[in-house]
């Protein structure tokens, strides 16, 4: 029980210390706000520009969510397809890897040439998020207990039953781990694409606000937008961790508390 | 003696051989006849091909030589054979009832009828109070009971057991041995039981088939002519000790033959 309190209290303490040092540095060295705004100014800006930033946050979150959803469907779907057919796996897997290892920052400007801007941003969010889902689900589908497969064979299970009753539930822990990574990555993909698009002029997402504020030397707003972005990332992480916990708490070691 | 020697066998293996892809010869010239209602043990050291023989009988593995015949009609239909693996091999994401129901679910059996059969099977192995528990919440012995209930639920003609109690402690193993003998007497199914324990095989079986390793072959057979029901009194009797010595000697001979 006390460990639980520590796990919540210690990070908050560190945060408070960090903000305090930040505020002191700004005050002691009399930093002008266009070099480093203090935490109080950032917070004030967050309130003052609230409506603008909130709308931008919604735009970015929508892209992130769409990218994540497409990544989940695409990643799990492709993993199932790979599991059903070796030929498809051999043909396509290398290209999934290539898509993953090519830096998204380099792909984004090219996508922006050929796709309308919102679609290009979405494509970026999808590209970075889909590989962890694919890789983890593929691993999960492959790690099914061989004796359970033999048991399903013994009872003449159909291909569909083998997939639905055995392989997918068995792969669930790895699949959820992949989705948890994908949630954070789709936000990163959306931000990268918005930044790249920002220089092209159009856009209204939160990352675009950061780029725009940078050109206008509106540093407090940059910080306020950054704060919102990282809060969004944290929220996504906790949401997906919670989902994963709910799905696994009855049976998987990762979600069950260890008794001592 | 309970097994009727005039009865024709329900399964008959002739000159069966199995060579794995890497060249390991698991079985060669293996002959076995098992009559309906009989309790037969395959006894031998690890690596003597007894598990392979069981998998061939179950149809999980194809023999590379010889024939497997079912004189009384094929047992190829789903649910005609029950299999208990060395590990409990339960689905960790499903509770005991769902695990036991699996064979019926895969056969798309009627739900209401399944529920009755599942309840019966679970009560038979003494897990009545635990049907809503998940495998990880059960002890090793209880998991194995659930696994046995699953093998019984389709009321198979033939039950194959592959060293099911090898990983359990001695106290639990004795208890499960007692219960298995009782179950077998009630149900009168044919059981082929694989073990490397002389004591276990003598306690349970009507007939013990002693095997030699590399390649797996029948070395000798011992009929255990002690009456059922067998209980703790049998386990501590002079008869039991005598049979154990006899079977140990047979096993020793089988091993010596291999060393030569």
Strand arrangement in the largest pleated sheet of chain B: 5-6-7-3-8-9
Characterize the overall form of chain B: globular
Number of E strands of chain B: 9
The amount of helix of chain A comes to: over 70%
Radius of gyration of chain A: 23 Å
Task: Give an overview of the whole structure.
The complex is a heterodimer of chains A (260) and B (260). Chain A is mainly α and 260 residues long. Chain A has two domains: 1-30; 37-255, MetI-like (MetI-like fold), CATH 1.10.3720.10. Chain A contains ten helices and no strands. In chain A, α2 packs across α10, α3 (50-84) packs across α9 and α5 packs across α6 (117-142). The two termini of chain A are 13 Å apart. Chain B is α/β, with parallel strands linked by helices and 260 residues long. Chain B starts with 8 loop residues before the first strand and ends with a helix. Chain B is built from eight helices and nine strands. In chain B, the strands form two sheets. In chain B, strands 5-6-7-3-8-9 form a six-stranded mixed β-sheet, sandwiched between helices. A three-stranded antiparallel β-sheet of chain B has the order 2-1-4, with helices on one face. In chain B, a hairpin with a 5-residue loop joins β1 (9-19) and β2 (25-35). The longest helix of chain B has 22 residues, at 238-259. Chain B has two domains: 1-75 and 158-260, Rossmann fold; 88-156, no CATH class. Chain B has helices at 50-58, 96-106, 111-124, 140-152, 170-187, 198-204, 232-235, 238-259; strands at residues 9-19, 25-35, 39-43, 65-69, 81-84, 158-162, 190-195, 207-212, 217-223.
Which features does this protein show?
heterodimer; A: 260 residues; mainly alpha; MetI-like fold; 2 domains; B: 260 residues; alpha/beta; Rossmann fold; six-stranded mixed beta sheet; 8 helices; globular; disordered N terminus
Helix/strand layout:
The complex is a heterodimer of chains A (260) and B (260).
Chain A: H1 2-28, H2 39-48, H3 50-84, H4 86-101, H5 104-114, H6 117-142, H7 146-154, H8 159-198, H9 206-215, H10 219-248
Chain B: E1 9-19, E2 25-35, E3 39-43, H1 50-58, E4 65-69, E5 81-84, H2 96-106, H3 111-124, H4 140-152, E6 158-162, H5 170-187, E7 190-195, H6 198-204, E8 207-212, E9 217-223, H7 232-235, H8 238-259
Parallel strand pairs in B: 3-7, 3-8, 5-6, 6-7
Antiparallel strand pairs in B: 1-2, 1-4, 8-9
